[in-house]
Amino acid sequence: MQIGLVGLGKMGGNMRERLRNAGHTVIGYDTNREVSDVDHLSDLVDRLDGPRVVWVMVPAGAATQLVVDQLGTLLRHGDVVVDGGNSRWTDDEKHAKELHARGIGFVDAGVSGGVWGLKNGYALMVGGDEEHVELLKPIFDALKPDGPYGFVHAGRVGAGHFAKMVHNGIEYAMMQAYAEGWELLERVDSVDNVREVFRSWQEGTVIRSWLLDLAVNALDDDEHLERLRGFAEDSGEGRWTVEAAVENAVPLPAITASLFARFASRQEDSPQMKMVAALRNQFGGHAVESAEKA
């Protein structure tokens, strides 16, 4: 299958490679000319056969809106736009309405997998009309992990990013729990091998997980996380999850507390946030701040 891909950063670049490895033709565009296959977005569209499919992997908000606006003028009736970034689900509804007026389909795809997705595949949570999702099925099959899991057509437009938002809210709470447990183990005098305690949990316990594996990786690299500053950014989905909970009167005490803990990390060098920062770097390649900078 042929597809255009806009945005070739850490995620988009690896997705292009995974799709090509699966035999698909990918024409990529990025403002960084060193990684881009074409010079302009219009060049990408011109090189695609109809019905054209363009997958957008740029930051949520103004950047995504700009690309959607441009594609709305470049694409034709029957073409499809996929937003695979971390857009808010309410933006999806707006973009779908704008493109529908021009006869262009829209699919929102929540994508999870971070820097490991090229090797392991990406979990995909998709929203949109059945006909558009079916058109994209070969692409989804190539991006998802091997096996029966890792893909879901979650519902209508917006459902994919809403599901990804909740996924990230759960991720916040899980990371916070590991971080709190790590700090407590580090604090007491009786435990003198915290890293190996974490390693021992990787098999046979109810809290084993990929996040735990990544925590051990981080501790192998920096046993007491002394090189990290206790600062962790939030990328937006945690806030949106809490806002959606308020709007729907759903209690989310663990997720809400984990979001507030990140806010606290900006006020002092929090030991817990060292672990959260290390985990975010491990699974997503997110930037960390050094202790020396602090």
Automatic annotation (TrEMBL):
Indicate yes or no for the key word Plastid. no
Hydrolase keyword on record: no
Record-level Gene Ontology MF annotations? NADP binding; phosphogluconate dehydrogenase (decarboxylating) activity
One Pfam family matching this protein = 6PGD
Which residues act catalytically here?
164
Extract the InterPro entries matched here.
Answer: 6-PGluconate_DH-like_C_sf (IPR008927), 6DGDH_YqeC (IPR004849), 6PGD_dom2 (IPR013328), 6PGDH_C (IPR006114), 6PGDH_NADP-bd (IPR006115), 6PGdom_BS (IPR006184), HIBADH-related (IPR015815), NAD(P)-bd_dom_sf (IPR036291)
Provide this UniProt record's keywords sorted from A to Z: Gluconate utilization, Oxidoreductase
- 6-phosphogluconate dehydrogenase C-terminal domain: which residues? 160-294
A GO biological process this protein is involved in? pentose-phosphate shunt
Q: Which family does it belong to?
A: Belongs to the HIBADH-related family. Belongs to the 6-phosphogluconate dehydrogenase family.
Give the protein's recorded name: Decarboxylating 6-phosphogluconate dehydrogenase
In its UniProt entry, the species of origin is given as Streptomyces haneummycinicus
